[in-house]
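Researcher: Please predict.
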Amino acid sequence: MQRFEERIDVAAPVDRVYAYVSDMTTHEDWSGNGLKVTKETDGPVAVGTVYATTAKQFGTQRERSTITEMSPGRAFAWDSVGALGRAHHAFALEGNGGDVTHVAKSAEIVEPKFLAKLTGWRLKKDIPEGLRRDLERIKAHLESPA
């Protein structure tokens, strides 16, 4: 399926932005639909760490998310498997050497199930809107006074 990407500039250093978006538990703060995240694997967070997620959108959606990339200050990615199939999510970060970070968030359903194929027309609208909302919430959180 199609890959979607949205971008925003955040007035925060790249290390702070990376720390926030690479902590799966903070995804509850900025993701919509009442997302709940629970770490399933033991040990420190690394590539391969697995989380269970639950959200409320068109009923209860349960997914299993696995971290696929952790490049501090540059990129964070994970794959989620659920009712739509396997989706790849990623953040790409670029700092300006100061207090502004260019943040790109992308999503792609790489192994769509029947439901994703059936509702593809709707996903093409909903995914970009969701990416934009996520980025706006991340920006608001990171730019708010501590």
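Model: Helices lie at 14-21, 27-30, 114-118, 120-143.
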